[in-house]
Structures are given as structure tokens and as C-alpha cells.
Design brief:
CATH class of chain B: Mainly Alpha
Shape of chain B: globular
CATH architecture of one domain in chain A: 3-Layer(aba) Sandwich
CATH class of one domain in chain A: Alpha Beta
CATH superfamily of one domain in chain A: P-loop containing nucleotide triphosphate hydrolases
Strand order of the largest sheet of chain A: 5-4-1-2-10-9-3-8-7-6
Number of helices of chain B: 11
Number of domains of chain B: 1
CATH topology of one domain in chain A: Rossmann fold
Order of helices and strands of chain A: EEEHEEEHHHEHEHEEH
Strand content of chain B: under 5%
Number of strands of chain B: 0
Structural class of chain A: alpha/beta
Helix content of chain B: over 70%
Largest sheet of chain B: none
Oligomer: heterodimer
Distance between the termini of chain A: 37 Å
CATH architecture of chain B: Orthogonal Bundle
Radius of gyration of chain A: 18 Å
Structural class of chain B: mainly alpha
Largest interface: A-B, 21 and 16 residues
Radius of gyration of chain B: 22 Å
């Protein structure tokens, strides 16, 4: 069942950043968007989430067009690079806040918030304030918040970029576990090949700016991990060179 | 707790200097006489009189009630300006220019205008206090609103929070430290300005009684009332504003 359809999406900011990108995402897929830094991955994600407008092309979520700043009846959860939690609210209150527009009672919101905080591994920390927990825990809370609205699609923009290598590994496993437990459709932007191969079910490699799809790979167990990582590394370095040649990011 | 030496924590250096000032005071008062500089003892006696007669409550209450109306009104208008500056870019620019003009208008202009407009009534000092306090509190609030983290607002947009909800949950808590800081400064200013405005035309209040004491050559009472003012300022600072500040930054 097709969840997300991207048709000829392009974006210009004085110069073309995204040339033309087309792909489809089925429900329950875990898609990783890869590419050299500055190639437009984040911009693409923001367009898919309706945060930014595309210059060309259309995005269809469950068949309905996604237009920037226009309410869509489907739910989109976003996890940004920074946790973007409200520092003056507890973790639980942060999650409950985004449940308010969904029109449920306070008790239902509290139960949901605690359930998803538990799912994200934060059981017992619900009453803590963001300033009192570690960066990894804050990102978990941001993930719990995105999951709590039970989104049709979950967008994640390099969410583990600010974490140390150890925490990153832990969080990658956690996201993979959460994906299996909830069956959500996830679009995950990263510049780390290893991360993408470890967690994605589908990998989309974008070319250097202006972005086009260079390669789309179904990451199933038939592929040999090490070789895949090698091939992708070669590919991304080619694109990085091409982008360096073209000008600063 | 910091490892400051106990002498510093008890404000011993300050007390030391204060003792020197006191000694100088006694000498100068003996030299220049009670009209110019009453002795510390006379001032304390004056303070005692003020407390015993109950005048301290009567005049402090009169001043404070005027301050609260003028200051309170300024806070309300300042909050509305904050809301306006958040909602509209144009409003923000207009408010900014308007406040710049108000900020540069002196107290005396408002005192004179208020007497012309409101006569010799309570409303004159209230109006003066309002006009002087407004730009201070409003500037702080508008600055606070301008400094709200846009990324948090974007998060609010992504999660479909309505304008009112965004204002309540994101803008206001973000702006509170600026608001409290502005109110603290504004209140101090309101106290000073109101007391001056009370010289012209009212028949109660700290400013009135200080001026009256000057007219009847009771300089020791002038000093005594100055002490009362300092007391009021210290109490409100510690009990009200510092407590508010602490409560609001619990989450840091």
C-alpha cells in the first residue's frame, strides 16, 4: 500500500538545490535518505513534511497533496536534529502538549504520553525536565513525542547527529526496535552510511547538488552488509567530490 | 553554597564602610546643624515617631495604591504591546518607535501634563507613573517576544498547535524572565517617580509628607521617610520579585 508518493519534486533557492526527485514509499517502510552534506536532504524532508514549499512537483500522502503551511488531515511526526523540547515543561508535559490538537481528554493524553515515553525507554523519567536529562534522553523524548500522535509518517532529520558514538549505536537499535514494534512508516535523513545500512529497509542515495536520485536500494538480508557499505561509501565520495567541484555547500 | 569566607557573607566589608559613613555623618551633622543634616539619632527618633503615630501605614499605603494602579496599568498595556509585536511585524516596528519616543521623555514633562489634564488629584501621579513605567516594562517584554526561539515555534507549527496554544505554551514561558526583569526595574522606577509626582498637589503619600516635612524645616523627618522608601523597595524586591524569579526558573 503506497503511503507517500514523491513526483518530480524540485526546489530552487536562487540556485537549484533539488533538481527532480521521484520515489514512492510503502506503508511500514523505513527509508533512509543519504547524500553528501548540503545536497538538499534536509530540504527534501522539510518539503515532505509540509514545512517548506517545493518549487516544482507534488507530494502525495495517502493520496492527498502535501502543501506547505496548509493543514493536511494526515499526521506527520517530526524529529529534528535538535530535540526542540520545551525546557519549561516536563518530558511528559512535552508529549502531552502535541496531543492537545488531537482533541483527547487530559487522562487519555497522560496515558498516551507515558506509554510512548516508556516505549522510548524513558519509563520513570516522565516528570523530569529536559534540562536535567542527557542529550540522548532528550532525543528519546522527542521521538516519543513524534510517536505519540501516531503519525502516518515519521520524519527524522539526522536525529542522532549530536550524540556520541556509543549513544548513537544505542539509539539506532532503539529506533529499529520501535519501528518493528509500531510498524510506522519512517523517513530518516542521515549522512552516515553505516547508520543507514544498519537501520533502513530502503536506502535512497541522493546525488550532489542539485539533488537527483542516484540509487535506490532495497536493504534486505540478501545483500552482503560489508560490500553494501563499501559500494555506498564509494558512491557518496564520488558525489562529495562532484559537489566540492561545483562550489561550497 | 559557595566557599566565600564567613566575613564576606555577613556583609562585613559593607558594614565596615557603613560604620565609617555613620561616623562621618555624626561629625558633619554636628558641624552643619539639624536643618542641613540631622544626626543619625534624630533620624531614628523621626522614624520612631512615624511608626508610633501610624503615619507610616497611612502614607505608604497611599503611595503604594497609586503606584499599583499606575504600574499595574503599565504592565497590562505592555503585555498588549508584547502580544501585538508577536502577531504583526508592522505593529512591532511601530511599537518600537513609539517606545523610543516615550523612553526619552523626562519625568517632569509628565508631571506637568498630568496636572494640567487631571488637576490636583490622585490621577496626576498615577498617570505620571504609568507613562514613565510603560516604556521600561514594554521594551523588556517586546525584547523577550523577539527572542523566542523560532525553532520551538516551528516545532509548534509542525505539531499543529494553534496560535493561542503557541502563545501560551511557547511565547509566554520564553518571555517570562524578561517580563519579571522589566517589572522589577519598572517598579523601582514607579516608586521613585510616584513619590516625586506626589509633591505636586496630593495630600497623602510619602512624597507629600517628605515635601511637607521640608516645608516645616523638619529635615530629620525627610530622612526618616527616605528610610521608609528604602525599606519598601527592599521588601518588594526580595519578597515579590526575587521570589517570582526563583519560582519561574525552577526548571533550569
Amino acid at each position: 500500500m503506497t503511503k507517500l508518493e514523491v513526483r518530480g519534486v524540485g526546489k530552487d533557492f536562487l540556485v537549484p538545490v533539488i533538481d527532480s526527485v521521484s520515489f514512492t514509499v510503502d506503508a511500514g517502510e523505513f527509508v533512509c535518505l543519504l547524500g553528501p552534506n548540503g545536497c538538499g536532504k534536509t530540504t527534501l524532508l522539510r518539503i515532505l513534511g509540509g514545512i517548506e514549499a517545493a518549487t516544482r512537483g507534488t507530494v502525495l500522502l495517502d493520496g492527498k497533496p502535501v502543501v506547505a503551511d496548509v493543514r493536511h488531515d494526515r499526521r506527520v511526526g517530526v524529529v529534528f536534529q535538535e530535540d526542540r523540547l520545551l525546557p519549561w515543561l516536563s518530558l511528559r508535559d512535552n508529549v502531552m502538549l502535541v496531543l492537545k490538537p488531537l482533541g483527547t481528554s487530559v487522562d487519555q493524553r497522560r496515558t498516551k504520553a507515558e506509554r510512548y515515553l516508556g516505549l522510548a525507554g524513558l519509563a520513570g523519567f516522565e516528570s523530569y525536565y529536559p534540562g536535567r536529562v542527557s542529550g540522548g534522553m532528550r532525543q528519546r523524548a522527542a521521538i516519543a513525542r513524534a510517536l505519540a500522535i501516531e503519525p502516518d509518517v515519521l520524519l527524522m532529520d539526522e536525529p542522532f547527529g549530536a550524540l556520541d558514538a556509543q549513544n548513537r549505536r544505542i539509539m539506532q537499535n532503539e529506533v529499529r526496535r520501535i519501528w518493528r514494534e509500531t510498524g510506522r512508516t519512517i523517513l530518516f535523513v542521515t549522512h552516515s552510511i553505516e547508520e543507514a545500512v544498519a537501520i533502513g529497509s530502503t536506502l535512497i542515495m541522493l546525488s550532489a547538488r542539485p539533488a537527483r536520485i542516484r540509487e535506490l536500494i532495497r536493504n534486505d538480508d540478501r545483500l552482503e552488509r560489508a560490500k553494501l557499505i563499501d559500494d555506498l561509501n564509494t558512491m557518496i565520495m564520488e558525489e562529495v567530490e562532484r559537489q566540492q567541484g561545483a562550489g561550497p555547500a | 553554597m559557595s566557599a566565600r569566607p564567613w566575613a564576606a557573607r555577613l556583609h562585613l566589608p559593607t558594614l565596615g564602610v557603613a560604620a565609617l559613613v555613620l561616623a562621618a555623618w555624626v561629625l558633619l551633622s554636628w558641624r552643619y546643624g539639624a536643618y542641613v543634616l540631622p544626626s543619625p539619632l534624630q533620624v531614628v527618633y523621626g522614624l520612631g515617631e512615624v511608626v508610633r503615630s501610624g503615619d507610616i501605614w497611612r502614607h505608604t499605603a497611599a503611595s503604594l495604591s497609586r503606584i499599583l494602579v499606575g504600574f499595574g496599568g503599565a504592565v497590562v498595556v505592555a503585555l498588549l504591546m508584547g502580544l501585538g509585536s508577536f502577531l504583526s511585524r508592522t505593529a512591532r516596528d511601530v511599537i518600537h518607535d513609539f517606545l523610543a519616543v516615550l523612553n526619552s521623555t523626562s519625568v517632569f514633562v509628565w508631571i506637568v501634563i498630568s496636572i494640567i489634564w487631571f488637576g490636583l488629584s490622585n490621577w496626576a501621579p498615577i498617570f505620571t507613573t504609568f507613562m514613565i513605567t510603560l516604556p521600561v516594562v514594554a521594551s523588556n517584554i517586546v525584547e523577550g517576544v523577539a527572542n523566542v526561539d523560532r525553532r520551538l515555534l516551528e516545532m509548534g507549527d509542525v505539531y499543529r498547535l494553534g496560535g493561542g496554544e503557541k502563545f501560551r505554551s511557547i511565547v509566554i514561558p520564553s518571555t517570562l524572565p524578561y517580563l519579571v526583569a522589566g517589572m522589577k526595574v519598572g517598579f523601582g522606577l514607579a516608586l521613585k517617580v510616584s513619590v516625586v509626582a506626589e509633591i505636586f498637589g496630593v495630600t497623602s503619600g510619602i512624597g507629600y509628607i517628605m515635601n511637607y516635612s521640608r516645608e516645616i524645616l523638619a529635615t530629620h523627618m525627610v530622612f526618616a521617610w527616605a528610610l521608609v522608601m528604602i525599606l519598601v523597595m527592599t521588601v518588594t524586591d526580595k519578597l515579590v520579585f526575587d521570589a517570582l524569579s526563583r519560582r519561574m526558573t525552577r526548571w533550569r
